[in-house]
Design goal:
By secondary structure, the protein is α/β, with parallel strands linked by helices. 32% of the residues lie in helices and 20% in strands. It has a six-stranded parallel sheet with strand order 3-2-1-4-5-8, with helices on both faces. Helix 1 packs parallel to helix 5 and helix 3 packs parallel to helix 4.
Length: 197
């Protein structure tokens, strides 16, 4: 049985990635983890209650056909994960939240070296961001039930279900770039921080 999750710092940062209405468009196809929005809302509420740092990442696509393109309904945040006034929102135009943004400088400047990651999609922006976080020396925790993937056709033309795509991305990341865990473990860990304060 793995050891309980324990944060090394008193201020782990919640990084919510691309939680926008764009992914509700039917063009994305079937997805897994239908509870992910509820999980993200629970994480947000816990972070807000404790005054812990959090950042919303918003995808500002430059692709004309993208459902994430600014100026259309899909660009808006999902209601469950919408930022409150005063919360930091960082726009990005690639899959990684670290490319072409001020994210790394903001994290380092505030001493936020421990990240909790959730959002969309597991095999794209979540995986790209978690990989870079690990490579840049941040400690990252990925809430596996707070993110989701979509069905995808693999290199050999075989259709893979969203659960399989999700699980493979988690396997690629866990222990190499981040630690994959459930949101219940994360919430218990921040509860321990609050209790020790």
């Amino acid at each position: 049985m793995p050891a309980p999750l324990r944060f090394a710092t008193p201020t782990p940062l919640l990084l919510l990635i691309d939680m926008q209405q764009a992914v509700d468009h039917p063009c994305w196809g079937p997805r897994n983890n239908p509870q992910a929005e509820r999980v993200c809302a629970g994480l947000l509420a816990a972070w807000r209650e404790r005054g812990l740092p959090l950042i919303h990442i918003r995808h500002d696509s430059v692709e004309p056909a993208s459902t994430y393109r600014p100026g259309q309904p899909g660009h808006a945040f999902k209601p469950e994960a919408a930022p409150l006034p005063g919360e930091t929102v960082i726009g990005k135009q690639t899959n990684s939240a670290f490319i072409g943004t001020g994210l790394e400088a903001l994290l380092r400047g505030n001493g936020w070296l421990e990240l909790v990651v959730a959002g969309v999609s597991t095999s794209n922006s979540v995986e790209a961001t978690a990989r870079m976080a690990g490579n840049l020396g941040f400690s990252a925790w990925l809430a596996e039930d707070g993110c989701f993937a979509f069905d995808k056709t693999d290199w050999r033309g075989r259709r893979r279900g969203a659960d399989e795509v999700h699980a493979m991305s988690l396997a690629n990341l866990d222990g190499e770039y981040c630690r994959v865990c459930g949101s219940a473990d994360i919430l218990a860990a921040i509860g321990n921080i609050a209790g020790a304060a």
